[in-house]
Design goal:
This protein has helices at about 5-25, 75-90, and strands spanning about 30-35, 40-45, 50-60, 95-105, 110-115. By secondary structure, the chain is α+β, with helices and mostly antiparallel strands. It starts with a helix and ends with a strand.
Length: about 120
């Protein structure tokens, strides 16, 4: 299997693990893989009355840094614009929103998830 196929598969596994992790921590998953213009939000969920736009970052190890370190300022700006598109398209009124990151380390098929709330 190609490296690209492997990383794509790992990404899907990471997103599945993150969604399950969020559910087990009281989040309600609203939507996954929302696309708007050139951006994508991995998971849109509610925690209580707060709408959380969740970026999932999956890695096999932390050898090259923690997964969340790859959420660069440029990526954050793209996520903000994509979230604004979601709010506008869905006609969402005055609701509290935030950006969370779920960092996933895959170790021999087992996912270790860490939630970072209100990251940026």
């Amino acid at each position: 299997m190609s490296r690209k196929g492997t990383s794509r598969q790992r990404g899907v596994q990471g997103e599945d693990a993150a969604a399950e992790f969020l559910r087990s921590n009281g989040y309600e998953i609203i939507e996954r893989n929302y696309y708007y213009q050139h951006g994508e939000i991995d998971i849109i969920a509610k925690e209580g009355t707060t709408l959380a736009f969740v970026e999932v970052k999956t890695r096999r190890s932390s050898r090259f840094g923690a997964p969340e370190e790859s959420v660069t300022p440029k990526k954050q700006e793209l996520l903000r614009r994509t979230a604004e598109g979601y709010v506008a398209e869905r006609n969402i009124g005055n609701v509290e929103c935030r950006f969370d990151v779920v960092a996933v380390l895959m170790n021999e098929g087992t996912a270790e998830c860490r939630l970072l709330k209100d990251c940026f």
